[in-house]
Amino acid sequence: MFRSRFDIKSQPGFGFITLFTFFALYLPIGALVVYSFNDAESLSQWGGFSGRWFVAAWQNSAVQDAAIRSLIIALWAASLATVAALMAALATTRTAPYRGQTLKYAMINQPLMVPEIVTAVALLIVFSRIKVWTGYSGLGYLVLAHTAFCIPFAYLPIRARLESMDLTLERAAADLYASRWQTFRHVTLPLLRPAVIAGFMLAFVISLDDVVITEFVKSGGQDTLPTYMLGQLRRETTPEINAIATVFLALSTVLVVIFFFINRKKQ
Amino acid sequence: MTESRTTAAHGGAIGLHGIKKWFGNFQAVDNVTLDIRPNEFFTLLGPSGCGKTTLLRMIAGFEMPTEGQVLLDGSDISGLLPNQRPVNTVFQNYALFPHLTVAENIGFGLKMLGRPKAEITSVVNDMLKLVHLDGRGHNPVTQLSGGQQQRVALARALAPRPKVLLLDEPLSALDLKLRKSMQIELKRLQLETGITFVFVTHDQEEALTMSDRIAVMSAGTVRQVGSPWDIYDRPAERFVADFIGETNFLSADVVSVADNRARVRLSSGAEISASFPADVTPNGSVTVVVRPEHARAGAPTGTSALRGVVHDIVYLGTDTHVHVRLDDGTAFMVRQQNARSGHCGFSKGDTVGIDFSDDVAQILRD
Amino acid sequence: MNGAEQVAIEARKQDIRSRWLLSAPALVIIFVAAIGPLFVMLLYSFMVKGDYGDVKPWEFSLDGWTSVFFQRDIFDDTLGLADAHISIIWRSIQLSFFTTILTLILGFPTAYFIATRPPHTREIWVFLVTIPFWTNLLIRTFAMQQVIRNEGLLNNALIWLGIIKSPLQIIYTDTANLLGMTYVYLPLMVLPLYASIEKLDFRLVEAGYDLYATRFQVLRKIVIPLVKPGIIAGSILVFIPSLGAYVIPRVLGGGKNMMLGNLIEMQFGAGRNWPLGAAMSITLMIIVMVALIVYVRNASRGGSGHV
Fold first, then answer.
1. What functional role does this protein have (chain B) (predicted)?
2. Cα atoms found within 13 Å of the Cα of residue A66, Cβ hemisphere only
């Protein structure tokens, strides 16, 4: 009789807990998606398979407006945040420590350390006053607030890539007569591209997903898709909201898949 | 090709004058003065941490000397940035740009210099031929073997026709066979292009094989500069003798000095003739070195320079090392070439006499 | 000092200057839209509340701060403890603590299991954790709501199985808050844990078995001490957002089971007491900071004995 090989890595029960975890992670999302195809008026019963709530959501002008607004804000915020984060990452990596560097790190990561609700009410206080003073109450406030909390997310992958990047490549460029700008343009930036794209996508999704800060900063009639949904949840909900959520879900899944492949190619 | 040979026929001369380099409290280079001649293959040889790479980086412009000057053909380049120096480097791990093709890598320097496209293309093609990579121009560099990457790195550094080519342990990542063939290749490229090569290595054999002259470094200082023959056969001091090859140290007393030779008496009482470094006048008790292959072991006779007992015999294929304990207790090794197959003729415990020719012993500076 | 040295020092100075310029946009944006407002809020917490929200500018008072923990009796004007506030703050801390524990109990075995798969399958598992992580928090909260509602999936399933007769009241309780937060923040625990377990050198585990350790001892004495940084990172990543949770208690907890986040929001809405809201926000920040410091200190002290 031979005993089967002793697997040093296994621990009893861990496989079972893992299966439970994944079941628990996916069951609610799965149910949400399934019910978006529910023909019934309410979520309480199953009225057969139908795509009508997707059509209803598509034709709902409030949803359309909110979706477009969400995309505009996310595109602006993610673009600005990525540029700012790229510059900041170049400024804070690959150097002997200098005075103020720690302060920079702390500032850049600050939005991650403070609970969102705190930042949200602080912004409410400041922006409500500025809105009165300037009379301007457009999307700029939302874009600015989103850019600020997107910066640490865009910064993360870019900084990581820069720190693992071989300094000798840039040295080689300098040795081959490239000026600082040429080195950046022809060597650093191309090598950073996957990280910059990853940072942009991360920032984009973070902006798209935000509820709390948007809820407190927005002026009247500036609902984004998440705040619109939050407002709807107060009422008796129909599967229309599931349909919106399902589309949203599909969008973030596509982004994860792209993100995943970019990261894989890098390795 | 002809054109490139004629323009590059004059490699630059590098002058290092009183170079000191501190990193915080650590002194990496201590007052180095060296003159590297045009068109020569010059090697900085030493153990890791001896400052040889720092010296190379100061010639390239990646480090600034704390004190001293770096001269190129007589003019001070200490204050110039790397991209302002007509000097190119072959990096230890090649540092090829992974996002560019072979041809784009080779043409990078010329592109940065703003040369016309046609010129870049023709130089790149010449370079590809020079390093035997014809037709591989469009390959991504990441798909090349180690040896091929090495050739691309060389071509890339040679393409802008620098006055001096710096090589930072470029062969250390290759396996033994490839390393041997690249040594010959490098020497050929240096002769063909006429560019001054400054080569950094910790591998003595590499240094001896390729160099016109070698500077042996230790702890931030240059210990000896000379031809491979000088360095190997006429080491000036203990560190050099010990670092390069294997050697035997014998204590001796100076009997007389005449011309450039000295008579010294060994502990066995035998007197031999020895050479000595030019800047030394030997007297009193000195240390003499003899290379193991310059000594012969045999049956002891009355005229043997040394006598001892065999305590170990190590067979190495090409050679046999006979380890002898001399009468005064010193360890001594004799290297015998295995000219014939079979046993070397000694056994452990045998008493042997050791002889060597008169011109092989060298007195060390204290 | 010679010319080259001068050049080096000058180059370094210029490098630092350009580094400040490069980081300026990010720093300015974060200052204007994140850090600066916190200081303004601190100022607001010391002002007199306005009659219709906002504050009376430059009229100072400590009322905002005292009302965080105390309330003035309507009849005799004495100060008593503000029980409602204190119980909500305490509930927030408790719920966040239990959420961290629950995510750790589920997350550690999961991360360990994933990290010990062959590299190729490992990627797929990580990918599967990443999808919910990237899914909108509101959507996940909403999905949870649909599961635990009275007519939701869970109750229907239990009734269908005959385990219960009438629906369990889960939604609008603290249990709902706890379940929701555990569900939503679980990926935040799994991912950093996975990252540190993946780096674990399993030769050390082999050495442990070689030296007669049991499976549990190997886990307890080798694996857990070595992946402590991951446990700390995961716990912080779960604890901080839990403490400031706003959406989850609003959707799942209902009006009675508020957390600190909802209490703060109330002061800016119906409560019309901005100084109090500001003081509470700063209190929340202080709790987070204290928790962070205590946790990191404890963890590093505990860890030093092993590593």
1. Part of the ABC transporter complex PotABCD involved in spermidine/putrescine import. Responsible for energy coupling to the transport system.
2. 28
